[in-house]
Amino acid sequence: MTEIGIQKSEKPPQFPLPLRGRVRVGGIERSSLAGLSRKELAEALRAINVEEGAIKMRVEQLWHWIYHQGVIDFAQMKNVAKDLREALAAAYSLARPEIATQQVSVDGTRKWLIALPADNLAQKSHHVECVYIPEQGRGTLCVSSQVGCTLNCTFCHTGTQRLVRNLSASEIVAQILIARDDLRDWPPERGENRAITNVVFMGMGEPLYNLDAVTKAVTIMADGEGLSISKRKITVSTAGVVPQIEKLGKGTGAMLAISLHATNDELRNQLVPLNKKYGINDLLAACRAYPGASNARRITFEYVMLKDVNDSVAEARALVKLLKNIPAKINLIPFNPWPGSNYECSDWERIERFSEVVFNAGYASPVRTPRGRDILAACGQLKSATEKLGYRARTLQAE
Ligand code: SF4
């Protein structure tokens, strides 16, 4: 035993983190502490025999270094005793998941393809995408919550990829760590003037089908002692998993966005097939009851502009009528084409006319400028290489 009560050992401890949290460092498989909750960090410390009386204080120290300072080496944790730093480094890592590829758009949008471990060693990596959109005075990180998606929204590229698996909370949080590393968005370089100010769950997957992990991830990213992203700046977007909407509000306090895209069930059934299960009336009732919704915390309704499908003035009027008495803002999204899609983007004049009707009814109706189109990073364009890698991965395993 050392003076701080740590038993030194040659072998990493048997810490019960899932396989997908582990990385190989120096030929030994170690669990990464990056992305873990306070409770999991406490377990990690207990597993290397840190005295119970010191656990709370040590967790706070780790939390500060991992989530506020963004360090990737235990040696940088200056106020942590040397013995403990060595014990941590022998047992764990602070590694992030690997970046498979990275692209930067002409407009400054960045997209990372992130490789995540598969569920078991027989499989190859899975991939998810994460996108950073810089804007004047702020920056938004769009994160994924699943590899692939089950919902098959017909205008969405991700929807053409089958669901592979849910992400863990630490894998969701790791997307922020990766982006902050790459953008040099930690205090030594940035101070408190951060590049990433907002987070939206609008990447791959349906967040409400992975609600436990999403709730845990939001709690970690909103913690004021760490990543410190205000809950008012975290938005979770759903295609309309009605039974989970209240639970999302109560569990996270995050802002809600609804992928609406149509004003009647017949059309929405085609665009968002989940609508056949939870129709527009039920969806809007859940929105009216969303915990904390108010004029200061409006629900965002996303409406993709599809040429001659949902973009008439009559539909703009129907939209306004539908959202009556809901504290709402409406995001009009020019459709972003992707290879093989059956839709076209509405003409600009039509988008303007639609926007005018919505604006005249008293709603803010920003038309979202398409970002990162050249790197397929815009809304609805994300689709990872997992599916494409599938055949190659299977072939390699057979070799
Ligand atoms: S829009 Fe969202 S829910 Fe629909 S298929 Fe795409 S990723 Fe899935």
Describe the structure.
It is a single chain. With 399 residues, this protein is α/β, with parallel strands linked by helices. The chain has helices at 38-47, 52-69, 82-91, 169-182, 187-190, 211-222, 242-252, 265-271, 280-288, 313-322, 348-360, 386-398, and strands at residues 22-25, 28-32, 92-93, 98-104, 110-116, 126-135, 138-142, 146-147, 165-166, 198-201, 234-238, 255-259, 299-305, 328-334. The chain has a 9-stranded mixed β-sheet with strand order 4-5-6-7-10-11-12-13-14, covered by helices on one side. It has a 3-stranded mixed β-sheet with strand order 1-2-3. Helix 1 (38-47) packs across helix 2 (52-69) and helix 10 runs parallel beside helix 11. It is elongated. The chain starts with 21 loop residues before the first strand and ends with a helix. The chain binds iron/sulfur cluster (SF4). Residues 149, 151-153, 156, 158-159, 204-206, 239, 259 line the site of iron/sulfur cluster.
